[in-house]
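Course assignment 3, question 2. Fill in each field.
Student: A.L.
Task: Predict the tertiary structure for the chain below.
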Amino acid sequence: MAAWYAVRIVVELSMKPVLSICAAVALLAAAALPAQGQLAGHGGPVRSIAISADGRYVLSGSFDTAAIRWSLAAGSAEQVLRFHADAVNSVAFLKDGRMATAGADAKIALWTAGRQQPDEVFEGHTAPIVALAVSPDGATLASAAWDGTARLWPLASGEKRALEGHAQNVNGVAFTPDGKSLISVGYDLTVRIWPLPDGTPDIITLPAPLNAVAVAPDGEIIAGGADGKVRFLAPGSKDVAEVQAGTTPIIALAVSPDGNRVAAGGIGGTVNLIDRKTRSLAGALVGPGLPVWSVAFTPDGATLLTGGADAAIRRWNAQTGNPVGAPQPGAPGDPLAAYAGDHGAEVFRACVACHTLSEKDGPRAGPTLAGLFGRKIASLPGYRFSDALKAMNIVWTPETVAQLFEVGPNAYTPGTKMPEQRIGSPEDRKALTDFLARATAK
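Answer field:
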């Protein structure tokens, strides 16, 4: 049961942290770091990574609502981009050297390096945007959002276009190498191949919800599923090959520039390297064991960058899987290690990507739960809650938390950004609230 709603959390996570770190502090702290194996400066999980075509710069987006442009050679931040009112879920470098950022606020911002405000803002989506792609000719930006649509945004002139048809969240988009099609994948199990500039899409239905998509240089479509599998679809064929790349949902994909390898990151913290020719696992990256939200190869294919829930961008040798640069800090311990064997803790495990249990750990994507019971909803200082939650009179008790997960957040707390999830078993709900009473008491 817990694994089921963990999948929902992975696919629909978009809660908004308000962290004390400001843009200037983030920039100074990151710029002070020597060139090393990781880039640290974000105040929350790193949701997305892009690398410039010349391999000199990295652009990252985070749940802390900021994007950072980094010098990869120096290992330091050069600019913090602050515009979005919510998590920055996707970033991209444009062909002309500019940058694009997209957020859970349903907006896309276009930036010129060094400028403090966006050059242009695209609006049209009505729900969080979670993926961006740039056409091979650089003329068009594509986006995927949880409003069930993908959209095409001409960067110079032309008609904007909404691609409708997915029945649920659209989680990924990618252009084919020839630029003649756009691929979209969604939680509705479908891969859709949209002919450009217009036309009816081919639809391929797969066995699991899809969280990410990439396209190899030869046009093969690669999709990452909530069942931990990576699936390969040959151009013009309905045949599907698959590789089991983990036991938890795949949420990030990247293909090496030569097309030989695929990196698949999952919520369980594993990044597996897949040999496309043999359809087999070729290695794994051993990191801190926290969700990996983003992966990207450098243009020469020698290095793989990953971004995850520890707020760091890590560098790896793409062939050996070994860390690059200075030794990585010690992996943080399991935050639930002290509760081994506690059934309520295992039910809560799906929530640790969003919430901490103690004040000293502060917020993640969601507020800390320290001192939860007896607290009025949306009253925790230092965290930005929606106006809808602030208007409610709910006080958190074992009974109200149990009801939240019995009927689901959308029904119990309309207007919340909390992922939709339910716990069907009364025994599991009781185990969870008993655990929270012990673990969050001040």
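Instructor remarks: The first helix runs from residue 2 to 12. The longest strand covers residues 76-82.
Grade: pending
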